[in-house]
Amino acid sequence: MSFFSIFCRILKWATILVTGYFAFLGLLAIPFFQNKVIYLHSVTLTWFKNVRISEQWGFLRNQVTPFTLTTPDQVTLHAWHILPLELYKKHEEAFLKEEDGFPPDITESLGFKLLRDDPNSLLVLYLHGAAGTLGSGWRPPSYRAISAGAPERIHTVAIDYRGFGASSGSPSEQELLTNALTLVEWAMKEAGIPPFRIVIFGQSIGTTVGISLAHHLVHQPDPVLFAGLVFVAPFADVELLTASYRVAGTIPLLGPLAPFPRLLAFFNKFIISKWPSKDKLGAFVHQCENMEGNGLKYHITIIHAQDDYDIHWSHSDQLFWHAVSATRPDELSFEALEEEKEQTKKTLGPAGWVVKHKTERGVIREEIATWGLHDRIMSYPIVSLAVLRAFESREGNLADGRSKSGRPLAQNQRKAL
Predict the structure, then answer these.
(1) What start-end ranges are recorded for coiled-coil regions in this protein (predicted)?
(2) Residues 354-378: pLDDT tens digits?
(3) 3 state DSSP class of 386
(4) pLDDT for 175-184, tens place per residue?
(5) Where are the beta strands (DSSP E) in 83-147?
(6) Is 313 within 8 Å of 306 (Cβ atoms)?
(7) Which candidate in 139, 140, 202, 322 could, as Cys together with 57 as Cys, close a disulfide (CB 3.0–4.6 Å)?
């Protein structure tokens, strides 16, 4: 075969690949297909399994109570209430006698009553990443990790966003925020858990939902401020993400266009879901730093693994920079903060490193683990400790159910909902 023939074949296949890729980009300009690619909600990863039967994922009988929430626009969200193990053990006989399956009324279930009626119970509201359902991948192990720091007290409630799993509807940026607000309203009004006993946990795209949620609630006339925010494998915003993100870890989104900034910027204009997390997190911190009166403090933990090949850990650097910058009166460059971090970061040997920025109004932590990939890290002790640390940052308020200003949060902070 001649050199010319080989060249022609290579050119032919290169043309096919380039044409196919630009056809793919053309589909991305259509909102329906764009949402399918960004949220991957049609990829359940729990095929042939009933997500209302949690025992399939190793949970004990009735340790998980499945239930539904209804959004203001009448979309039904499927949810799990996961009971911490030590609390389950204390009431094991009662749970074994309780009827299993989907309860007609969640408020009549034993698990719910243990959450609602215990003034020392703590609650993590769990916002998962793209693709899959409540039972997919490393999510069930992560529920167990979350409660490990206080296995008698830390409950977890997770939802499938609209269009995911058994939930109705279809996802979008605004509607996922509505889903999260619905979950918070249920936690505060139905379960009666005040914000200082709630931690928001988000992973991957769930971090953007959590940041949007915190940003929205802190800007209300009666601001809502949770015990803490724990974000695992976040991204700064969609425009920064598209340059490196690979769908399912293999198919590049706009990565091949990264060497051509103007072309990349052109295609980014067609993306509807912007998820400007770095800007919203900065605005959240700025608002917290300048709130008057109630003395409430914020607590943010950003966690990422260096071997995450879905979302590069540099996105966490960007989020940390925007959050820290919001605490400074003067302009802080990314490079200047990186120099500061080199002086203040605590190295953890083979485990990675952590850096903390503290003000009178709150704490911002960035924890970079050496290993953990994109999802597996959710089940690691680094997450258990982050959740526990967030609750302990407000532990002084747990004894009497009041903020430092003396106002009952369970009543005052619900007004924003």
Answers:
(1) none
(2) 999 999 999 999 999 999 999 999 9
(3) helix
(4) 999 999 999 9
(5) 122-127
(6) yes
(7) 140
Whether 47 shows a pLDDT value over 70: the answer reads: yes
Task: Report yes or no: 324 and 253 within 8 Å, Cβ to Cβ.
Answer: no
User: Rounded to the nearest 10 degrees, how much is the dihedral formed by the CA atoms of 381, 382, 384, 390?
Assistant: 160
Which residues contact residue 375 at a Cβ distance below 8 angstroms, ignoring those fewer than 6 apart? 129, 137, 138, 203, 204, 233
**Is the pLDDT at 408 greater than 50, yes or no?**
no
User: pLDDT tens digits, residue range 146-161?
Assistant: 999 999 999 999 999 9
Q: Taking the domains of the chain in order of start, what are their residue ranges?
A: 39-397+409-416
Class of residue 235 by CB neighbours under 10 A (exposed 0-12, middle 13-18, buried 19+) = buried
Q: Is 20 helix (H, G, I), strand (E, B) or coil?
A: helix
* DSSP secondary structure letters along 140-176: HHHHHHHHTTSTTTEEEEEEPPTTSTT--S---HHHH
Query: What is the rounded CA–CA span in Å between residue 1 and residue 138?
Result: 50
Q: Is 397 in contact with 196 (CB distance < 8 Å)?
A: yes
6-10: average pLDDT: 74
Mean pLDDT of the chain: 89
Q: Which helix (H) or strand (E) segment is 363 a member of? A: strand 362-369
Please spell the DSSP secondary structure of 55-80, one letter per residue: GGGTPPTTTEEEEEEE-TT--EEEEE
Percent of the chain predicted with pLDDT > 90:
71
Q: The domain 39-397+409-416 is classified under which CATH number: 3.30.470.10, 3.10.180.10, 3.40.50.620, 3.40.50.1820?
A: 3.40.50.1820
CB neighbour list of residue 320: distance below 8 Å, 6 or more residues apart: 302, 337, 355, 357, 364, 366
Beta-strand (E) ranges in 178-233? Answer: 198-203, 228-232
